[in-house]
TrEMBL record:
It holds the Pfam family ADH_N. The lineage of its organism: Bacteria, Pseudomonadati, Pseudomonadota, Alphaproteobacteria, Rhodospirillales. This is Quinone oxidoreductase. GO terms for molecular function: acryloyl-CoA reductase (NADPH) activity. SMART domains: PKS_ER. InterPro entries: Acrylyl-CoA_reductase_AcuI (IPR014188), ADH-like_C (IPR013149), ADH-like_N (IPR013154), ER (IPR020843), GroES-like_sf (IPR011032), NAD(P)-bd_dom_sf (IPR036291), Zn-ADH-like_protein (IPR051397). It comes from Skermanella stibiiresistens SB22. Residues 19-324 form the Enoyl reductase (ER) domain.
Length: 327
């Protein structure tokens, strides 16, 4: 049986031990579609998985990698045939089911989304789970209805979700305020369309239950005190799409923004997002994120370089999106 390159996590002393090795199809889980993986990406959750800091990996041996794009090589499903371009994000892949950091993956057909017209596999992974989540956040805000006269805040703006959210919101004509702890990324964020740069420290101190009404809406990737401050400063009738915990999983807030300002807290999950919404989000990504916009946020690395980058993303030192060349 032909072998292929795979980054495999084994369990050693309760921690994952990650190494490049060769697997065969017999090592892959039992799905109905096999994919030649061309591109994967590095997300915050992958950083947690590769370093063993977040107990993300639930099975061993396992190929981590929560997303990938590539071409179908074998299919028992009527929905896909060899040669089809596909994207996978979420569904526990790269957590309890072998994922994208290998030249081949076998998954359930219902988890796959066809590559939309106009989007290549590399572009799809330049978006990846983070960018897809950014689009879900934008859709959540749109569904709620946002006052276009006010600023929309993005926290963790220089990260993966943040960078794509800034670009999407700016493209849609919103005035985007980008909060970052890296002032040296101000020019980068302005190049993505941010009008205003907000120092992360302004939001990371405990705030009063309500502060002056500034944000028409927000995409929050940070959580913790930052999310509480964002809620406190959201204007009457505004909404905050909360998708991340880069700064903490707690929410030291009060009910005041909800009961006195009619503020809505919109939860955003990408892992179990239903298929129709996935397809809608990917179709919009293909239309609204031109290739040059993605190039500006993307760094390319190899599978060999990947383990070294895992710590960097947890330290908040990775800018924008990192695509991983698999084949
Ligand atoms: P990144 O590491 O690329 O971005 C996170 C950004 O948050 C950093 O770049 C940094 O931005 C900021 N940050 C980091 N640490 C802190 C801190 N201690 N306090 C305040 N800000 C901080 O990660 P991703 O964009 O891939 O993911 C962002 C978050 O969203 C993660 O928590 C991730 O788990 C979550 N996520 C959730 C998904 C879902 O389905 N709900 C899907 C994808 C991601 P800056 O330097 O600009 O301040």
């Amino acid at each position: 049986m032909e072998s292929f390159k795979a980054l495999v996590a084994e369990q050693a002393d309760g921690k994952p031990k990650i190494g490049l090795t060769r697997w065969t199809d017999a090592d892959l889980p039992d799905g109905d579609v096999t994919v030649a993986v061309e591109w994967s990406s590095l997300n915050y959750k992958d950083g947690l998985a590769l370093t063993g800091k977040g107990r993300i990996l639930r099975k061993f041996p396992m190929v981590p990698g929560i997303d990938f794009a590539g071409t179908v090589t074998e299919s028992k499903s009527p929905d896909f045939k060899p040669g089809d371009g596909v994207i996978l994000t979420g569904w526990g892949v790269g957590e309890s089911w072998s994922g994208g950091f290998a030249e081949r993956a076998r998954v359930k057909s219902e988890w796959l989304v066809p590559l939309p017209d106009g989007l290549g596999a590399r572009q799809a992974m330049a978006v990846g789970t983070a960018g897809f989540t950014a689009m879900l956040c934008v859709m959540a805000l749109e569904g709620h209805g946002i006052d276009r006269e006010r600023e929309i805040l993005v926290t963790g703006a220089a990260g993966g979700v943040g960078s794509v959210a800034v670009r999407l919101l700016a493209n849609l004509g919103y005035t985007v305020a980008a909060s970052t702890g890296r002032p040296e990324q101000a020019d980068y964020l302005k190049s993505l369309g941010a009008s205003v740069i907000v120092d992360r420290n302004e939001l990371s101190q405990p705030s009063k239950p309500l502060t002056s009404e500034r944000w028409g809406g927000a995409v929050d990737t940070v959580g913790g005190v930052t999310l509480a401050s964002v809620l406190a400063g959201t204007a009457y009738g505004g909404a905050v799409a909360a998708c991340g915990l880069a700064g903490g999983a707690d929410l030291p807030s009060t009910v005041m923004p909800f009961i006195l300002r009619n503020v809505a807290l919109l939860g955003v999950d990408s892992v179990n997002c239903p298929k129709p919404r996935r397809q809608e989000a990917w179709a919009r990504i293909a239309k609204e994120l031109p290739a040059e916009a993605l190039d500006a946020v993307t760094t390319e690395i190899t599978l060999e370089e990947l383990p070294g980058k895992a710590e960097d993303i947890l330290k908040g030192q990775v800018r924008g999106r990192t695509v991983v060349r698999i084949a």
